[in-house]
Amino acid sequence: MKKIIGGPGTLSGLILRIGQCVSASASMSVMLTATGSYNCTAFHYLSASMGLQALWSFWLACAYHFALRYKKDLQTPILVSLFVGGDLVTAMLSLAAACSSAGVVVLYARDVKYLEYCDVHDQFSCLRYVVAVALAFVTWVQIAVSFHVSFWIYASV
Question: What is the pLDDT of residue 93?
């Protein structure tokens, strides 16, 4: 089987998984340190979804590292189907969490004028919501790339 860029067991796949883990962890930690994030269910969902994504990506990064170090093939039909299924589930959860949190941020910014209130009182704390949502979308783009590559490999196995 031909190796595809970003596929399981490749260096580019390892870099992609590390990027997913780092951006998901950053999004989760930024959201958890923002004051007042405990008041909104969408922000809880974003933190939980990014935590799951960070764990999934870390586990796969470890597996890819093992495969690269010991020259193992991760592109077997069973393993690739596991990667496709896991990426599909985490991609859907991450997109839903990012979109719902982005909706709350837009609601705060345009309708409630919460972010204008934050400009006067605590600008840094309120900017964390925006940063966490942006990092969640970055994470989702990386997951979508991983899913697409894994699905392409699964179709050809």
Answer: 96
